[in-house]
Specification:
This protein is mostly helical. It is built from one helix and no strands. InterPro entries: PELPK1_2.
């Protein structure tokens, strides 16, 4: 059987390893910031020789190919269609006559009782809002008198 570790043990171990790793990176990055890079001397630019020009070649013409005579296809004789013998038509027996069954009559359903007319319900009215509504503001109202 496999042994399962408790997850509460793994979390502190993970935090300890991450904290130990981060200290080395801070020192290495500070060392990189404090060091100066050496100056690289500039290399002289090399001049390339000019590319040679290609001479124009004469256009090459192919000689015409000789025409080949294609032989005609051999004649395939047509075959006669084979005649199939006619089969005699079988005589099917006649289907016996089945008398039609009488349809039973269903009894009449009783009529539904008359329901009384119910009054229509009235819907409540929606109250109207007044037209002059003061808008709330965060600033105090302006006074016309000076203090």
């Amino acid at each position: 059987m496999a042994h399962h570790h408790e997850p509460s043990i793994l979390l502190p171990l993970l935090l300890i390893t991450v904290s130990l790793m981060s200290g080395k990176e801070v020192l290495a990055s500070r060392h990189l910031l404090e060091t100066t890079l050496p100056t690289v001397p500039e290399l002289p630019k090399v001049e390339l020789p000019p590319l040679p020009t290609l001479t124009t070649l004469p256009k090459f013409e192919l000689p015409p190919l000789p025409k080949v005579e294609i032989p005609s296809l051999p004649h395939v004789p047509t075959l006669q269609e084979p005649e199939l013998p006619t089969l005699p038509k079988p005589e099917l027996p006649t289907v016996p006559h089945v008398p039609a069954l009488e349809k039973p009559e269903l009894p009449e359903l009783p009529s539904l009782p008359h329901l009384p007319d119910l009054p229509k319900p009235t819907l409540p009215t929606i109250p109207t809002l007044p037209k002059d509504i003061p808008f709330p503001s965060l600033s105090p109202p302006h006074s016309t008198t000076s203090p």
